[in-house]
Amino acid sequence: MDLVVIWTCLVLFPVLRCALPPPCDSEVYCQGELLRQVQEAKLFADDKHFVDMKLKEPPGKVLEAFRNLTSTVPGGILSAQQIQKFLTDFFEEPGKEFESWTPSDWHENPEFLSNITDPDLRSWARDLHTLWKSLGRKVRAEVQDRPELYSLIYTPHPLIVPGGRFRELYYWDSYWVINGLLLSEMKDTARGMISNFLYLVERYGFVPNGARVYYERRSQPPFLTLMVESYYQATQDKSFLSFALPLLEKEYQFWMENRSVVVQSAGISHTLNRYRVEAGQPRPESYTDDLELAQGLSKDAQERLWAELKAGAESGWDFTSRWYMAEGGRGSGGALSDTRTSHILPVDLNALLCRNERTLAFFYKELGNTSAAQYWEDALQQRMAAVQAVLWDEETGVWRDYSLLSNTSRPGFYPSNLAPLWAQCYAEPGAGERALEYLQASGALKYPNGVPTSLSDSGQQWDYPNAWPPLQHMIIEGLSKLSSESAQQIALDLSQKWIQTNRKAYKTYQAMFEKYDVNGDGKPGGGGEYEVQLGFGWTNGVALQLLDRFGDRLSSGATAVLGSGLGVWLLSTLLVML
């Protein structure tokens, strides 16, 4: 395909030296000598620990005390013991931002439990429903009154956190959390969480990655419109929809004004979106990882790499070989230092925005505003044409990420290749069935415990052998929208696999995890920058949704092979061999 990219300064990082700001303005939590010395001392197993600590005194006083202390030391570098004492004097441990809170709308017997036929699965679903209480948090009023003492960004309503090190509000995680809450009939809690995100859009113009100041210059996949859709489907609350719509449009404009690229195909201009973060310096919450990765690079190359890592974090896929671009942008090989997220047009981001455009059109139809609905219908049609022209790979019959460096489709299997099925972002007859054939031939269905995030064992957590809840749900929902019997069967079998591995892990550890190993029998996932986290918000939400949808057919026993995804994969492999 002959595509000519209309470049900008921010696309051409290697050529044009764009000044990049720090992750946020705080000289305690985002930049400066205090942050550098504390993180390089490695007093904590996780760099996020320090940047989540509360100040005991105003930042100016703390920074002055730090400068006075370092001025008494040769070279200005404090020992680990001196830094530890300084932290004891001027900081409190993380977690002081919240007060205990139990959702008032939680009750024991939500109706969805009755949809689950298997008594063991129904009992487990009740346990998952109960986990919402342990993940509930309420921000202390002092965070609003004295924001300078905290890295936490104040939000006015109680919330459900993912769990583990993720002790604050996170963006795309919350879509599946909210869907789970609505099944649990916790509409007030769900509305409060959505209202928090709308509050953040009003304040920042977009939703930050999470509710910490060090996330202020990056977002995550924009699921807010779909959160409102889920809530509206559950409540039919048109007054809330009317309130939310201007802010949903404001967020959409952020993505179009700051995260879009115009490309041309056959003389036609198409606008598509990417992840891109205008912030240099190491990520405060992963400071030493970023610093060590960039060792030996020039200052400009370090800044570019750190910006690309933040773009990878903005994608939610942090990190993955999907974002590696070696060999001039043509290959998929490389290492973490070859991350070039901003130079890639991702299938799933554009499918998500496609679904947002369709949903915004639906919202305006619901409110009787036909002219506004037509505007979003037009945007939807333009997006679908762009996805077809740029991201559809006719040779393999699936959608693929696109390299802005080499003007070529990106190789490799990723569940995101099928995101347009989930978003229904295509109009070509037969495209859905061709994508199904691609999935069957890929080898991704042969694993006993879910669809892997890639087929590349890079050691990164968004690669093989890990399987992530949101990706499982998107693939299953996408397949469920196809009319073929094989697609419906694979959706059911993948649901059985996923529920089986989640439940086995729960029985072993009495916990839900953020990710799982596709080969292990109830084994949590691994790899990446931190230990696998338990809790876990989106895992609970996805499991509840699958139990609700397929609960009359799912079993707590072993997955049958005949008719299953594995059986379909074996059959398709035999047919290819013949």
List the helices and strands and how they pair.
Elements: E1 3-5, H1 33-41, H2 48-51, E2 54-55, H3 59-70, H4 80-90, E3 91-92, E4 98-99, H5 119-135, E5 136-139, H6 141-145, E6 159-160, H7 173-183, H8 187-204, H9 224-235, H10 238-258, E7 260-265, E8 268-273, H11 287-293, H12 299-315, E9 344-345, H13 347-366, H14 370-391, E10 392-393, E11 398-399, E12 402-403, E13 408-409, H15 419-423, H16 431-442, E14 466-467, H17 469-480, H18 485-509, E15 516-517, H19 537-550, H20 565-577
Antiparallel strand pairs: 1-7, 2-3, 4-5, 5-6, 7-8, 9-12, 10-11, 12-13, 14-15
Give a written overview of the molecule.
With 578 residues, this protein is mainly α. 46% of the residues lie in helices and 7% in strands. It is built from 20 helices and 15 strands. The protein has helices spanning 33-41, 48-51, 59-70, 80-90, 119-135, 141-145, 173-183, 187-204, 224-235, 238-258, 287-293, 299-315, 347-366, 370-391, 419-423, 431-442, 469-480, 485-509, 537-550, 565-577; strands spanning 3-5, 54-55, 91-92, 98-99, 136-139, 159-160, 260-265, 268-273, 344-345, 392-393, 398-399, 402-403, 408-409, 466-467, 516-517. The strands form six sheets. It has a three-stranded antiparallel β-sheet with strand order 1-7-8. Helix 7 packs across helix 19 (537-550), helix 8 (187-204) runs parallel beside helix 10 and helix 18 (485-509) crosses helix 19 (537-550). The chain is globular, with a radius of gyration of 24 Å. The chain starts with a strand and ends with a helix. Residues 1-16 and 559-578 have low confidence and may be disordered.
